[in-house]
Amino acid sequence: MLRPVLQYPDPLLSKPCEPVGAIDDGIRALVADMLDTLSTVGGVGIAAPQIGVLKRVVIIDVSLEKEQEDAPQDFRVFINPVVTVLDPRPHEENEGCLSVPDLRAKVKRPRLVALDGIDLDGNPVHIEGGGYYGACMQHETDHLDGKLFLDHLSFLKRSLYDKKMRKGRK
Ligand SMILES: [Zn+2]
């Protein structure tokens, strides 16, 4: 089912999420909704809090690994994902977010990371990479800690965006 994507400054987007215990029907329904929403609105990843559920679940388009724009999207589910930094040297990518409309900005993050989690069958899933792919893994997992890519921007850039959003809401 398509669910509305929460938009900044919705307070749910800045709350930490709970780990998933048992993979039950509730979690399976959550993942189905996340997939429906992501494929409808378009994007390379989504985190559960973006549809208002504070559980540690993300979906990532693993076709990004190929770094080919025409590669068909291949969404993979990560339950209780953990990012491990493999190369801490900073690397900058232009990021955007379904929950942060009308903004793309350069964000510096560790260059190479791994992402570990489990899938809906409880099997371990592991991916690693850098560039836009690595940034995506870190961006989506950040959501589970209540962090948006805005939190990585300078105070000035962020205040400008805040101002614009508040104006638009009036
Ligand atoms: Zn995001």
How would you portray this structure in words?
- This protein has one domain: Alpha-Beta Complex (Peptide Deformylase), CATH 3.90.45.10.
- Helix content is 26%, strand content 34%.
- It has a 5-stranded antiparallel sheet.
- It binds zinc ion (ZN).
- The site of zinc ion has 5 residues, from helix 2.
The share of residues in extended strands comes to: 25-35%
Question: Low-confidence spans: pLDDT under 50, at least 5 residues?
Answer: none
| Overall shape | globular
Binned, the helix content reads 25-40%
Category from helices, strands and their pairing: alpha+beta
What is the radius of gyration? 15 Å
Bound molecules: zinc ion
Helix and strand succession?
Answer: HEEEEEHH
The first-level CATH class is given as Alpha Beta
CATH topology: Peptide Deformylase
CATH superfamily: Peptide deformylase
CATH 2nd-level architecture: Alpha-Beta Complex
Overall tally of structural domains: 1
Please describe the structure with a list of short key phrases separated by commas or semicolons:
Peptide Deformylase, 5-stranded antiparallel beta sheet, 3 helices
Characterize this entry briefly.
The protein has 170 residues and is of the alpha+beta class. The protein has helices at residues 25-41, 131-143, 155-169; strands at residues 45-47, 57-61, 75-97, 100-118, 124-130.
Helix and strand arrangement:
Blueprint: H1 25-41, E1 45-47, E2 57-61, E3 75-97, E4 100-118, E5 124-130, H2 131-143, H3 155-169
Antiparallel strand pairs: 1-2, 2-3, 3-4, 4-5
Zinc ion is lined by residues 97-99, 139, 143.
